[in-house]
Design brief:
By secondary structure, the chain is α+β, with helices and mostly antiparallel strands. It has two domains: 61 residues, no CATH class; 94 residues, Outer Surface Protein A, domain 3, CATH 3.90.930. It has five helices and seven strands, in the order H-H-E-E-E-E-E-E-H-H-H-E. The strands form three sheets. Strands 4-5-6 form a three-stranded antiparallel beta sheet, covered by helices on one side. A two-stranded antiparallel ribbon has the order 1-2. Strands 3-7 form a two-stranded antiparallel ribbon.
């Protein structure tokens, strides 16, 4: 690789060398531990937002992750990926009697099950990719409960069990 064949990449390597004294960049796979390799701008941005990455370079842009207040996520529209389904099952507990168990299950792995709270089940049962979290959460809950639900939704998003889309 030379300056003549790819000047942008050559400049990147030279800048890295200036900072580290190492004139080499290693290209590794770009993904987290629950999804295939990133192959679109949307995948890259979601990976940035839901992992410990601080920056992502896309084309000629360097995007920095900023600290985001939980209220910002209220404008996102939740939806379940096609391979994830909601489940509500009554189970018997010897000490408590009948207990309702809520979970997400994966159609690709019959053994997979992710327990969720009743309030998250309710939000996801109303999620259609059109309503925002703010619309779904409108009601009688406290601000603290809304914050907890948003954080649980972000956790499920980081595990790719739900999607959160911009309006």
């Amino acid at each position: 690789m030379s300056r003549k064949t790819n000047e942008g990449f050559w400049n990147l390597i030279q800048e890295f060398k200036k900072r580290t004294d190492i004139p080499i960049l290693l290209n590794t796979s770009f993904n987290n531990n629950v999804e295939p390799i990133v192959d679109s701008v949307e995948d890259a941005v979601v990976c940035l937002l839901t992992t410990t990455l601080h920056y992502v370079a896309i084309g000629n842009y360097l995007i920095e992750k900023k600290s985001t207040p939980w209220q910002t996520y209220l404008s996102l529209r939740p939806l379940l990926p096609a391979h994830i389904s909601l489940h509500q099952v009554n189970k018997h507990d010897p000490d408590m009697g009948s207990v309702v168990h809520y979970s997400l299950q994966n159609s690709h792995d019959a053994r997979f099950e992710c327990a969720i709270q009743a309030r998250v089940f309710r939000v996801l049962s109303l999620a259609d990719g059109e309503k925002t979290l703010k619309d779904i959460l409108a009601g009688e809950r406290s601000r603290e409960e809304d914050r907890e639900i948003v954080h649980e939704m972000i956790d499920l998003w980081s595990r790719r069990l739900i999607r959160l889309k911009a309006s």
